Amino acid sequence: MTVDPSHTIPVSVTGAFCSLNCPHCGAHYLRHMISVDEIPALVKKGYRSFLISGGMLPDGSIPFEKYYEHLKELKESHGLLYNFHVGFQKSKVAKELADVVSMDFFGDETVLKSIYGLALTPQEILDIAHFYENVVFHITVGITGGKITHEEKALEILSQETDTVVLNVFIPTPGTKFGKSFPPDLQEVVKLFEKARKLFKRVILGCMQPRGEYRKKLQSELKDLVDVITKPVGGTGEFKGCCAFIGRG
């Protein structure tokens, strides 16, 4: 299956603010998200699917509470679907309103610390995930500036928790600390997908993929290894929305 994620609109509850300034993102991606107040206008245009996210506070939480009533009213009155990207927190707002919860996973606490500055073990991340229903785990391959580090271990741990995994691929983003890095070695990435194929019932290539020739080669190499390709080269996608909605079952 192929997926066009453009029909799920990303929303930031913090605007362009994030306290963490992670080396792979640096709040760059928040700048392209809309505010909660802009949702009604998009609903009028026919959109019904939204990714609710935002910048993290120093403890890894995202402050959804301020918008609880507004998000709830919009969901109930228009039948909206929400994918909450929750950071690393137990959010009562997300637990109540989310149709699916997206969580990043790390198989090594030192790698997580080097990226987010947070001290959480893999088990502590899982303990947070167990607070929710319909969690879809994401692993960003090569998140440490294009280097493969914890990913195999992460796959092994998650295979005991779920039958679905979303694998993204690190993008060197201009203006970030890793902006001058390179994407991970393509053949190393393929090997990780081969491992994932053996461990999981459903393997999804997520929306984070380097552009250009890398993406073309990546999707060509993975076409027989994954169940879902997000942002297919030269195509629009059979499913319109976040791949996490497929991953929830």
UniProtKB/TrEMBL annotation:
SUPFAM superfamilies: Radical SAM enzymes (SSF102114). Signal peptide: none annotated. GO terms for molecular function: catalytic activity; iron-sulfur cluster binding; metal ion binding. Keywords: Iron, Iron-sulfur, Metal-binding, S-adenosyl-L-methionine. The keyword tRNA processing does not apply. It comes from the Bacteria. Transmembrane segments: none annotated. The keyword Magnesium does not apply. InterPro entries: Aldolase_TIM (IPR013785), rSAM (IPR007197), rSAM_sf (IPR058240). This is Radical SAM domain protein.
